[in-house]
Amino acid sequence: MELYQALITLDGWTFLAQICNLMIQLFIFKKFLLNPVKNVIAERKAKADSQIADATKLRTEAEAMKAEYEQNLQNARAEANEIVANAQKTATARGEEIVGEARAQAAALKQKAEADIAQERKKAVNEVKDEIGAAYENSNGISASFTMFTRSAGQNAGESFEGTIQMKGDKFTLVTPDALTWFNGTTQWTYVERNDEVNVTNPTGEELQFTNPALLLNSYKKGFSATYKGESTAPNGKAAYDVELTPKKKGDIVKVELQIEKYSNFPARITVTSKNGVSSTIQISQLKTGINQPDRFFVFNEEDYPDVEVIDLR
Fold first, then answer.
1. Is the pLDDT of residue 4 over 60?
2. Which pLDDT tens digit goes with each residue over 148-158?
3. What is the DSSP letter of 92?
4. How many other C-beta atoms lie within 10 A of the C-beta of residue 6?
5. pTM for the whole structure
6. Distance between CA 42 and CA 228 in Å, rounded?
7. Which residues does residue 182 pair with via DSSP β-bridges, in sequence order?
8. C-alpha to C-alpha distance for 299 and 168, rounded to whole angstroms
């Protein structure tokens, strides 16, 4: 009991000493242990804060750089698209310009070619005209057999007959189944056997061309415009020029189509179309030159036809 009391009895000096000892330990702990630890912690905290701040700054800068990069990339893409679009526009415009230039050149070449063709055709026509005229003028009289076909507009069938003709200059003698005709350059005598009469006239140039279209060979240069139509094969199998004659003055004749043998320059076929739709085609065969008929050959001789009635219609 005494021992127990001794243990629980509080000694003031001892308690005070213990308090002082505790205070000293706390002082020593704080001074030499707690403060350094606080300083270390503060330094570490400051360092961590600095690192966080640096990281935040770097992140901000990185985000700014990323945003700038993305903006630059977007700008670059937009610029590239604009460049491509401009290039396409330029290419399209240049392409259209090239196409336009090519079309203009093609049109110019076509126009020149057409002009050259027209010039060549005109030259060919002039050459053919000169050759036809020269061939007839140098023939010194010709004789030929022919077949004439006459057809009206809208008719599938027409009339045809055969005959012979002799020509020299502007004179001719024409023999057909129905009539004999003489023309000496001024006067025409037409003998119709079934009527046993001779009609005497002074025919006009156009009337003569209906009577004897072959006279066109000697006179077409004056009254007609010629157009070269190309080449063809004549009924006798020979190569031929095709020439169309158009009257310079309006009349009964609308057009004349000539098929001229290429090497002899004499007609193989003559077609005359009148305004009433009647067309007459003469197909020539057995043509001979150098006959040199005398002038009287183209004049009606009354002594050869003593019983006929002569009717002067001049």
1. no
2. 888 887 666 67
3. H
4. 9
5. 0.57
6. 117
7. 173, 189
8. 13
Distance of alpha carbon 137 from alpha carbon 125, whole angstroms: 18
Residue tagged 């022919």 (tokens): 146
The C-alpha atoms of residue 304 and residue 97 are separated, in whole angstroms, by: 84
**Alpha-helical segments (H) within 142-272:** 205-211, 216-223
Nearest to residue 207, comparing CAs of 245, 244, 252? 252
What is the identity of the amino acid at 59? R
**Partners of residue 163 on adjacent β-strands:** 146
From the number of C-beta atoms within 10 Å of its C-beta (0-12, 13-18, 19+), residue 252 rates as middle
Q: E strands, the chain, where? A: 142-151, 159-168, 171-175, 179-183, 188-192, 197-201, 224-233, 239-247, 253-261, 267-274, 279-289, 309-312
pLDDT in tens, 182-197: 999 899 999 998 888 9
* 60 HSE (CA, 13 A, CB side): 6
Instruction: Please tell me which of 75-84, 118-127, 171-180 the model is most confident about, judged by mean pLDDT.
Output: 171-180
Give 78-88 pLDDT, tens digit per residue. Answer: 888 888 888 88
Strand, coil or helix: what is 104? helix
- Rounded-to-integer distance, Cα 261 and Cα 230, Å: 12
Q: Residue 36 belongs to what H/E stretch? A: helix 35-137
Token pair of 230, please? 């190309």
